[in-house]
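Support reply, case 0932

Customer input (verbatim):
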Amino acid sequence: MYRKKLKEDIRCPLEYGLSVFGGKWNSRIICVLAEMGTLRYSEIRSEMGNITDAVLASTLKSLISNGIVERKSYDEIPPRVEYSLSETGKTVVPILQSICRWSGIFYRQNPEDEPAHCRKCDYHAS
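Our regenerated output:
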């Protein structure tokens, strides 16, 4: 198993938060699960579009280890695995919505070119 040579240097809560839900894929996966609920791996993959399997698997593992996403396996044949936001993960959604609203003020773009999931900032965690 790979281990980092240096311990992660997190000096404030903001850095920790950005390491958990920041980045290109973490926030997108969180938004997809917030919008669509419980999904299987292949459903997340099709919603994400241009993510590779290796990156999706790695990102899901990271989100699971940070308590943002839950993975539920069913003892069936063929095996079935589903992913959903944990209660902690649901608390991240309003933060991402706030970032989205802020970005909308400062980043102008043609609404027709807007990615489909970026239109879903009205999601409210239950």
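We compared this against your earlier run and they match. Two observations from our side: The first strand starts at residue 39 and ends at 40. The chain has a mean pLDDT of 82. Please reopen the case if you see a mismatch on your end.
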